[in-house]
Amino acid sequence: MISPAGRGVDLMHAMRRVRAELGQEHRYAHTLRVARFAERLAFAHGEDPAKARLAGLFHDLARLYSAQQLLDACTARAMTIDEFERANPIVLHARLGAELAREFYGVQDEAILSAIRKHTVAAPAMSRLDAIIYLADGLEPGRSFTQRAAYAELALRDLGAALRAVLESTIVYLRGRGLEIAPQTRAAAEAFGLPAASVSGRHLESVRLLRASAPPDAAPPLKGFTLPDLLTTVRDAAEDKKGEDFTILDLEGRTIVADTFVIVTGRSKVQTRSIADAITESVRDGGFAVARTEGYNDGGWILIDLGPVVVHVFTPDQRQFYNLERLWGRPAEARAQSS
Ligand SMILES: [Fe+2]
Ligand SMILES: [Fe+2]
Predict the structure, then answer these.
(1) What is the pLDDT of residues 155-170, one digit of tens each?
(2) Which of 39, 58, 279, 284 lies in disulfide reach of 101, CB 3.0 to 4.6 Å?
């Protein structure tokens, strides 16, 4: 299961379970975007990216529960339910989600659980990881509000400033619609030094200033070989075994999972294994290291971790089900690097 430090967790297994648990593709897609942005924020702020990724992946486990299911599930666990939560049961999905992550995914790490718990209404005391998950949830690229991109940019530079900006705009939004503001959100706003809620020019100003000093994205170094070499080796091996729909996704250094995903289809589990074998062998023959391979026995989704490149060999149905292409980016033009 999941180690206390949140490390060594197999991303593929977690994704597989969360995908099955959430059912709804739309929610799963949001979850991956949050995990991905949280990881990037963690990377930028010296927080543990593995923990951020996990917290992101698990943050909405209870989001599809109905109001009554949330109340029932919390009551069954003898969780306290305050007046605001009683009137707005939807917010309970955050605290319940942490319980589900613990019970069903074996997450023991209190930092991860805390971040899941606080992701919806925030809290007066927020750790760096708490802030990262709260911000990643609100600022992931699927959200569509005017300042999203600017705030996301700000979050990469200054978590505190981004937290204040998002809390402030949340309060303004809720007030504008005559909706009740959670006491925890109010307390958070006060604790983070927000005066009466009105979006001041202050935060936008800091966005502009900080943009100018953006550090480059960190990308894992390639030691002694080039990315095109590695991709060519992988493609040749896959095509040799009649792998289909060879696709390269350029993740542009936005994740520590890898710089690049390679996706290829085998018609059957026998074929996916033979493609995986061929890739592993060629890569090793070429002097590249294979960090690990996952899913070989099942064969429906075999992951080969080559460091900067992660290869996914799918059967057609599994490829369609997980749809990494749609969720993780546009195909790169790396195909042209074959020649
Ligand atoms: Fe949520
Ligand atoms: Fe969410």
Answers:
(1) 999 999 999 999 988 8
(2) 58
